[in-house]
Design brief:
single chain; mainly alpha; 60% helix
Length: 179
């Protein structure tokens, strides 16, 4: 549509190119900010981990001296070798119990970030079709979610039906598409 201006209006292609360029700048800026925050956080974590490692080493040394003292204390009534044997057996029993508890904990652990993966899949589904035809799509099965409506039908955002807080399919804090 020509409005009769002196050529100062830009074409749609130019506007899209500018918007893409601006969006790239925003994304690069956000990535740089995230890198800076992670770097600062990693430095603090490294210092804290080093201090904790030093404390753990000193704690281990103290524990060794405590066990040595216990063995010599038992040696007041039994031979020295028997005192050390008793202390060693007690320490090995405690280690075995801790190992069994650790093994049980590892067997029940779920290291995969299942909620984050599910949320990412739902976010991708919403980004791919921000104004769906009539129903929301479950990101895990690809099937329509019963009881959901599109933003165009009046409720403002698709519902995921998975019990997430707020019922939206996007990331927390993300804007909801409006009709």
């Amino acid at each position: 549509m020509a409005t009769g201006t002196s050529g100062t209006e830009r074409t749609i292609g130019q506007l899209v190119a500018d918007a893409t360029h601006d969006l790239e700048g925003i994304v690069r800026g956000e990535i740089a900010l995230a890198k800076a925050e992670v770097t600062d956080g990693a430095k603090v974590l490294g210092k804290g981990a080093g201090l904790l490692a030093g404390a753990a080493f000193l704690l281990l040394m103290g524990f060794v001296f405590l066990l040595h003292s216990a063995a010599w204390g038992i040696a007041e009534w039994l031979p020295v070798w028997a005192g050390y044997l008793i202390v060693a057996v007690v320490v090995l029993i405690i280690a075995a119990v801790l190992a069994l508890m650790g093994k049980k904990a590892l067997e029940t652990a779920r290291p995969a970030p299942e909620r984050a993966i599910d949320q990412a899949q739902r976010t991708i589904a919403v980004i791919k079709e921000p104004f769906g035809d009539s129903e929301a799509v479950d990101a895990t099965t690809g099937a329509p979610v019963p009881g959901t409506t599109s933003p165009a039908s009046g409720n403002g955002s698709p519902k995921s039906g998975t019990g997430s807080p707020g019922g939206t399919g996007g990331a927390p804090g993300s804007p909801t598409p409006s009709a």
